[in-house]
Amino acid sequence: MTDTSNAPMFEIENLHASIEDKEILKGVDLTINAGEVHAIMGPNGSGKSTLANVLAGNPAYEVTEGSARFFGEDILELAPEERAHLGIFLAFQYPTVIPGVSMANFLRMAVTNTRKARAAASGDDRPAFTPREFRRLMREKMQLLHMDDSFATRYLNEGFSGGEKKRAEILQLALLEPTLAILDETDSGLDIDALRVVSNGVNKLAHDKMGTLLITHYQRLLNYIKPDYVHIMMGGRIVQSGGPELALELESQGYEKLRANFAVA
Fold first, then answer.
1. Cα–Cα distance between 208 and 75 in angstroms, integer?
2. CATH code of the domain in which 132 resides
């Protein structure tokens, strides 16, 4: 077995990826350690959501170069469900609607399968949740996100408002308990009240063993979820990194100065 005791929790190195023969990621480097919150900001088309999809294992994207290592193990050859079982979670920018499948049934299957995989990997023979145990756990997490109990019986994302869809994603985060949470434009389509509820939920779920990667266009999300590091992505790569003050600088100056400084089209 490879010794990963000194490896960063998550390390992306020189990552290149394409879709339909068009290169989108052009050499991304990023390291995330446990307990850290990283935010990636950038204009439309800079590669932010592509990065999230590549890390989650979306088969539409082809990785052409580089690596993404989770506790020292390169995950790029793993299937999406294998990555999820390791503890990598993606909250989608545009969550999928699945008519006929209730939130409760979907979440119970996801949590049960993930728990079984982790138990098998660790040699732990914990039994699966009983339906009663899972209902109790789900109600506890729903209260955390100020979600009505009736939410559990609705079909997955069908007829959901933008805020409800994003709360459903954060409910999955709460139940799956990942080690790396990737939140792809979680603030998209949210009004101020919904943004506050979702952000408070993320903050309550954060802990010193979980790393978080926030992908966003706007500073407003970072008013609620405080990042340790902010990275600016343009032209398929990270061109600048800094502390939370970098987001404020970007908000006031926009991207034009950066485009000139880094010769990004």
1. 22
2. 3.40.50.300
